[in-house]
């Protein structure tokens, strides 16, 4: 009788492959894999845990970016237009953090919900994550135009675009989770 032992590495490898396969359907697969690979042991092969983790990563990045943008407001020598764009961006990022946090909590509530309850919770998550993505894009739009070229724009824009990419991927993974439940 041959007994097959399952090593932790085999489980981790399956989880990594699950993440790669799931991320391949997102808009930014490389960023998706990079941001979620470290969580493979807790994600295992669970579409729900993958979506939950993706939202958590998005919340963390949005909070970090919000703090960064807030610090940029304190820079001396900002042009009035830069200062106003930063102020608006702080508000947009605050809204994004709030919506993503609510989405994270709502996805937790899905639990064993079935039918209309499940649909209602998932619909809330999809709506709030989409709104967070709009907030992030609105922040970036505030730095449009030639008068805004410079280091302030580049540093904020790069960080907010990364948050938007991670958020877009989270929405895609929530949608994948939802489609497997219907």
Features:
elongated, single chain, disordered N terminus, 79% helix, 182 residues, mainly alpha
Protein architecture, described:
The protein has 182 residues and is mostly helical. The chain has helices at residues 8-23, 29-36, 40-43, 47-72, 80-110, 115-141, 151-181. It contains 7 helices and no strands. The longest helix is centred in the middle third of the chain and has 31 residues, at 80-110.
Spell out the blueprint of helices and strands.
Elements: H1 8-23, H2 29-36, H3 40-43, H4 47-72, H5 80-110, H6 115-141, H7 151-181
Helix pairs in contact: 2-7, 4-5, 4-7, 5-6, 6-7
Please give the largest β-sheet. Answer: none
**Helix-strand string:** HHHHHHH
For the secondary structure, the number of strands is 0
**Given the C-alpha coordinates, what overall shape results?**
elongated
Low-pLDDT runs = 1-8
Termini gap:
42 Å
Radius of gyration: 19 Å
Quick check: average pLDDT? Answer: 90
- Strand content is under 5%
Question: Roughly how much helix do the residues carry, as a percent range?
Answer: over 70%
Write a short abstract of this structure.
This protein has helices at 8-23, 29-36, 40-43, 47-72, 80-110, 115-141, 151-181. With 182 residues, it is mostly helical.
């Amino acid at each position: 009788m041959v007994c097959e032992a399952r090593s932790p590495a085999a489980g981790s490898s399956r989880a990594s492959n699950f993440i790669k396969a799931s991320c391949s359907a997102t808009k930014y697969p490389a960023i998706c894999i990079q941001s979620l690979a470290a969580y493979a042991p807790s994600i295992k092969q669970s579409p729900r845990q993958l979506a939950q983790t993706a939202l958590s990563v998005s919340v963390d990045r949005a909070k970090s970016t919000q703090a960064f943008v807030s610090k940029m407001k304190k820079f001396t020598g900002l042009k009035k237009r830069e200062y106003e764009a930063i102020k608006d961006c702080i508000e947009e990022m605050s809204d994004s953090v709030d919506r993503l946090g609510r989405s994270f909590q709502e996805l937790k509530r899905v639990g064993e919900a079935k039918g209309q309850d499940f649909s209602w919770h998932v619909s809330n998550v999809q709506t709030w994550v989409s709104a967070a993505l709009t907030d992030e894009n609105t922040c970036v739009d505030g730095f449009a135009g030639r008068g805004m070229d410079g280091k302030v724009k580049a540093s904020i824009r790069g960080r907010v675009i990364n948050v938007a990419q991670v958020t877009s991927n989270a929405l895609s993974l929530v949608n994948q989770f939802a489609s497997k439940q219907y």
